[in-house]
Amino acid sequence: MEVNIGNLDRVDPPGTTPLNSLIKPSPQVQPMEWQEVGGNWLLIPRRPRAVIHFLGGALVAAAPQVTYRRLLEVLARSGYLVVATPLVNNPYHQDMAREALASLERTLAPWPGYLPVYGLGHSMGCKLHLLIGSLLAAERAGNIFLAFNNFPAQQAVPWIDKLGVSLPLEFTPDPAATLELARTTYRVSRNLLVKFRNDDLDQTDTLYPLLQGRFPGLTTLQCLPGHHLTPLGPDLPWVDAASFSPLDVLTQWLRQEVYGELERLEKTILTWLAPGT
Fold first, then answer.
1. What is the pLDDT of residues 149-175, one digit of tens each?
2. Class of the 16-234 domain?
3. Which of 128, 148, 146 is nearest to 231 (CA)?
């Protein structure tokens, strides 16, 4: 499909988002470094194969370039242009979803060109991507849900009453309404759902049958070692064995032990994004 980039009324192909100078960063901006653009944090490979829009979990999503640094940088090094949208906690999740999508579109709109767009969410971020795919006019090549959480407010954040703030008794939309949207209006046909074996906050089992029923054969469920916070974590650099100090030995042990579960998650995501590669 030929697109005239001078035509402001053009129709974008499904699952794509405008891009251009992102692929060729200016001399002042080095590729693969975190860049703040329009309130989002971006990682830009030289030849991106797709866009990944990331939304994080409650209380850790305000600085995703820090709290999810390792996971997002691995995806970027594999050729995916990462757009991580910071989130401020708000019980009105429908408004959060709308604002996250608007932020993504504002950041990418100035650049013509096309790449497929995938949503990637963790915990609350999964719900926001579910709402974007159900209620808003956003085309996606697929969505990745890590540790989907749809609990009522008191269960999602059990100590919320100790914060000393006044919040509604329930998130909007509430859990039942959210699942009904997934069953009846969710439009993204290809999905990867990941649950972790030691995760009391995970509700993937409530979402999977709804998406599988809506799009038979296009929804993948993976159960991996780990817990609700497995997707988080900065990276620890690998030190050459010839220069090991006692502290380096400890660092590399932590890297192998702590990040083993995260590495398995990264491989699962990359395999789903580009099967056969």
1. 998 876 665 545 555 555 556 789 999
2. alpha beta
3. 146
Give 234-264 pLDDT, tens digit per residue: 554 444 445 545 554 455 555 566 678 999 9
d(CA 228, CA 211): 21
Determine which helix (DSSP H) or strand (DSSP E) holds 103, and give its type and residue range. helix 93-108
> Cα separation of 115 and 123, whole Å?
26
Q: Are 221 and 196 in contact (CB under 8 A)?
A: no
53-67, 89-103, 105-119, 144-158: lowest mean pLDDT where? Answer: 144-158
Cβ-based neighbour number of residue 243 at 10 Å = 7
CB atoms within 10 A of CB 162: 8
Q: Which residues contact 12 (CB under 8 A, 6 or more apart)?
A: 3, 18, 114, 139
Cβ partners under 8 Å of residue 36, min gap 6: 42
- Give the C-alpha distances (Å, rounded to integers) separating 100 from 97, 206, 211: 5, 24, 22
Q: Strand runs (DSSP E) across the chain, as ranges?
A: 16-18, 35-37, 40-43, 50-55, 80-84, 114-122, 142-146, 191-198, 219-227
CB 87 within 8 A of CB 55: yes
Pairing of strands 142-146, 80-84: unpaired
The angle subtended at Cα 124 by Cα 118 and Cα 129, nearest 5°, is: 30
Q: Name 41's bridge partners.
A: 36, 84
Cis before 173? omega within 30: yes
- Close Cβ partners of 52 (under 8 Å, ≥ 6 residues apart): 72, 75, 80, 81, 82, 83, 117, 118, 119, 120
